[in-house]
Structures are given as C-alpha cells and as structure tokens.
Amino acid sequence: MRATGSGAPATAARPGRRPLSAPPVIPAAPGNRRARWRRSLPNWTTPWLFLAPALVLFGLFKFTPMWRAMQMSFHEVRPYLGDRWVGWANYQQVATDEDFLAAIGHTVVLALGQTGGSIIIGLLLALVLEGSTRNLWIVRTAVFLPTVAAMAVVAEVWRILYYPAGDGAMNTILSWLGAGPSQFLNGQDSSLLSVMGVGIWRGAPYDMMIFIAGLAGVDRTLYEASAADGAGVLRRIWHVTLPALRPVFAILFTLAAIRGLRVFTEIFLLTNGGPNGSTEVLMTLIYKLGLERGELGVAAAGSMILLLATVLLTLVVQGIRARANRQVTR
What CATH number is associated with residue 213? Predict the structure, then answer.
C-alpha cells in the first residue's frame, strides 16, 4: 500500500486479477424499443393502426372513383380527345329526360315494395323461427340460402318458374287458385311486380336473421308479465315485441331501402329493363348510358343523383330514429 499525491490510499492490482472497471453499456434490444414506442402512443391510436391498411385500400378503390365520377358529371367525356366542361348540362338532361324520370318512378316503386315486403316477411319468419334448438338452426340455414345463392342461378330458376305458358310453374299455382295465366316477366303490367317478388324472396331471409338477433335482446320478463295480465299472442307482439325492435326496424329500413334504390342484378338478368322499358330502373339506365351509348358524363350525373338520394334517405331515417329515441328517454 502506498499513498498517492492526494493522500488517499491506492489499492495495487494483485497479480492475475483485472483492474475494476465500469460495467459495459448493453444496447436496448429492438423488441424493448418497440414496446416503449407502443407504450408512448395514446390508447385510441391502436385500433386505427390496425384499420389503416384497409382504410387506405377502401379510400383508393371507393372514394377515388366517386371523386372521378363527380368530375365527369360536369364534363362531356371524350376519350382520347379530352373532356369538355359543360357545367350543369348533364344534370339538366337527366332532369328532363322522360326515360330517366320513368326509371326514377320504377326505382321508387320497386324500393318501397321490396323494403316493405322483405321487412314484413322477415319479421314473420323471425317470430316463427326464434329459439335456440338445433332443429331451428337447420331450418334457419335452409331459409337463409336464397340470400347467399348466386344471383345468376337465382335469376335462371325464377325465369323458369315465371314461364308464361299455361303449364308454367307459377301459372299452374294460379290455376289452382282460380286465377288466369299471367305473362309475368313478359308483360308490361306484371314485369315490375314479378321482379319485386324475386327481390322480396331474396331479401326477407337477410332481414329475418337481423330480427332474430334483435329478438334475442328482448326482456323475457315482459312477456311473462303481459301473459300474467291476460294478453294474447298478438297483443304481446304489438305492445312488447314491436316497441323493443324499433332500432332494428330503423336499421333494416335503411339497408332495405338502399338495396332497393341500387337494385341492378335482378333487373339486368331477368328483364334487362324490358319489356318496353317497364322495368327500367336507375342503375340499369345508368349502365346503358355509360357503357352502351357512351354518354359517360350523363351517366355520371345520374349516379351522383342516386348517391344524393341514398345519403338523404339515410339522414332522414337516422333523424327520425334520433327523434324517437329522445321521446322515449323523456
């Protein structure tokens, strides 16, 4: 042991032993850095990070074409020659065209009929098939098949059923009921109703499943209390079931109405707007204007009008629903 210049004793290193030194600094592992980075983010950002790729793709393939269609609606679209600005001329042509006005009327009638029919039949099916037994699940699956079946196959089947001859399937049923044969898809007076029937047959099972989900949330004690008061089945449905299903009705009305306004495949495959334009709707007319006649600007204007009608319908239904909820909470 010897003293240093400062008077503090210095420890001599023993032979065979390394001198003491500070521990080495170990860099943080990449996983630790990622964990600290995730902890530094607010909690509300995590769901949006997971949704970001899907939202980017949705915006690219949904809103970009919508923006392009809005631009086209104010132009005379001339491929390879450049678009020419025409202002509101395309919208004026749409508003004054007799074929377009007739298509609007057919669309409204079809939307109202399919919406009302699918909701009523869907509710009746849900009331009959409500429950948790295994046999009911099998029946529900069978009833739901029209919704998931390919529309091309469905259209061909219904075209066979609607065969206008006297020995056709539907005409045979009508003869059993004492009614005369019908032209169905081939008649101007019956074609729209025939297409409406196909839409109801296809949409009712979808509404049924949503009604069944809504019925599962109804308080069963209300049924027991109403039964104890002597209420019958119809009164229980009217005073207990239907008020509890108000939110479901609002959702289904919005979805079914939008589905009716945007109907295309059924018309295109069954009648293609015929006979004599009796089943021409907005979607089929827009398709023909844009892809068959080459009037892309007019077709884009029609699609913008259809989009505006869909948005307004949704806002009106949501406003009615919010007003009803406020009245209930008072």
Answer: 1.10.3720.10
Structure tokens at 279: 């089943």
Number of domains in the chain: 1
Going by C-beta distance under 8 Å and a sequence separation of 6 or more, which residues neighbour residue 226?
Answer: 235, 236, 239, 240
User: What is the rounded CA–CA span in Å between residue 226 and residue 237?
Assistant: 10
> Does a structural domain hold residue 33?
no
84 token code pair: 């020419």
Whether the pLDDT of residue 110 is over 70: the answer is yes
Share of the chain above pLDDT 70, in %: 86
Segment 45-58 mean pLDDT: 87
| The pLDDT value given to residue 292 | 87
β-pairing, 2-3 vs 9-10, is antiparallel
pLDDT tens sequence across 184-211: 899 888 999 999 999 999 999 999 999 9
Question: What's the angle, vertex CA 219, arms to CA 217 and CA 222, rounded to 5?
Answer: 150
Between the CA of residue 287 and those of 138, 163, 270, 280, 292, what are the distances in Å?
39, 27, 15, 11, 7
Asked if the structure places residue 120 within a domain, the reply is: yes
Upper half-sphere CA count for residue 137 (Cβ side, 13 Å): 3
The identity of residue 179, as a single letter, is A
Dist CA 141 CA 138 (whole Å): 5
Residue 130: inside a domain: yes
Tokens 């902890």, residue located? 39
